[in-house]
């Protein structure tokens, strides 16, 4: 294992975050905080509890998940896309480094950034809304699992994308709608029965449900199913990455 | 001695069907400067990319210092440094950070003293904290070389190293490359500047349409293929070559003021004495003469033309 290479990529990516703190950390924390102010403190105070949880507290797991998904994808996709775009990818391709090590470096850094961001959002939320974490171990587990899984997904998008539009299209046109419709702001039991069935095809439902369970012990779907679905998605992403490096898809000519 | 790079039956066919490399067989000797010449699109960069791991070869075998680049890629790649043709750099990184990154990427522990040594050798130490985007093209080129040298490779590929570089810096780079060779590195360079190959290379390879059409010691190549020319600056211009001399390889240029005689320098009988005698008999006097040998550029152009 080329640990020096993993460390070099990881440090390089983290250094990029430090150079762009406003964009990487401050901006998502601020925009998520606005949700807490509007939906939690302002509108939330006029809404009833859901499953015994105040509305302001109810939306916290979903909002953290929203930021976590979009930032994991964005960090990882940009991390690998930019060397491709600038041409510096030649160095990674010609280095004595396996694809496992490349993924550990880029995805590890992207997931680390997202986890830090998720924790910062949770801390910030405390200033606006009271919440509890019933299963802290599971909360961290879901946070890490989701960050890693969606960083892997972002890595695939970064390889696939050959322009900036493609880099943005899946996070904006697919992931954000799925997150909004995945129960970030409501329990799926509030939907009409037919939509309750349809919404189960949305993978984000399982992430948010599981994550919310770790906070309040209530969930739309069984927590075991949530973990299972996340793992299935992770395995799909790992398979995709394995195929990319095996064939050299959009990396090696 | 075992070659440091050994290429056998290498082929590369792109997905478009374009055959970029056609059955390449090539050995690079340890410690030499090997210049790979070829016109645009000849396959130089594809060949280098195949050796360095950037291009997936279709078939064939490449060994770097005895290590197969596919099955033993870690050992093979840690021996190799690459300076690509394009100035591809991370614009917002500092010089020192990007060179340090390269060393780590190639599996070497951090060594600030060594990084400082390289940066000083390449006159980059004063710019160590400068952002890449703030550097001139020549300075960026030096950084690319520093990155390639950061992991102490035994083999250095320089793909068009002096493209777009001013004359002074080009001379500096030539000196630096010779210095690297003197320290034991093997250098493989591609270049459009034939003068560069003529100045630096120990051996020359010519690639055209994906095929290696010649590999030869530079001195031997120029000796074998280099024709000599005798130029006579005539006392008075002549209208045409006399009928009796038309069987000789003569050419009139400069409105009949100069007569060029091409001959084989290797031949025992160059025919010069006979030519001068006959010219005298025809009343063609000359005021000066000089002889020149074909440059590498002439040789290269002729070789490529012949293959076409």
From TrEMBL, chain A:
Name of the protein this chain belongs to: Transport permease protein
PANTHER family: INNER MEMBRANE TRANSPORT PERMEASE YADH-RELATED (PTHR43332), TRANSPORT PERMEASE PROTEIN (PTHR43332:SF1)
Localization in the cell: Cell inner membrane; Membrane
Pfam families: ABC2_membrane
Protein family according to the UniProt entry: Belongs to the ABC-2 integral membrane protein family.
Membrane topology: Multi-pass membrane protein
This protein's UniProt keywords: Cell membrane, Membrane, Transmembrane, Transmembrane helix, Transport
TM region(s), chain numbering: 20-43, 55-82, 102-125, 137-161, 167-188, 200-219, 225-245
Primary residence: membrane
Domain ABC transmembrane type-2: 19-248
Record InterPro entries: ABC-2_transport_permease, ABC2_TM, ABC2_TM_bact-type, ABC_2_transport
Lineage: Bacteria, Pseudomonadati, Pseudomonadota, Gammaproteobacteria, Oceanospirillales
Highest rank taxon of the organism: Bacteria
A GO cellular component annotation in the UniProt record: ATP-binding cassette (ABC) transporter complex
GO molecular function, one term: ABC-type transporter activity
TrEMBL record, chain B:
Residue ranges constituting the ABC transporter domain according to the UniProt record: 5-234
InterPro entries, sorted: AAA+_ATPase (IPR003593), ABC_transporter-like_ATP-bd (IPR003439), ABC_transporter-like_CS (IPR017871), ABC_transporter_ATP-binding (IPR050763), P-loop_NTPase (IPR027417)
Protein name: ABC transporter ATP-binding protein
Gene3D superfamilies: P-loop containing nucleotide triphosphate hydrolases
GO molecular function, one term: ATP hydrolysis activity
One Pfam assignment: ABC_tran
Keyword hit for Oxidoreductase: no
Top-level taxon of origin: Bacteria
Organism: Aliikangiella coralliicola
Keywords from the named record: ATP-binding, Nucleotide-binding, Transport
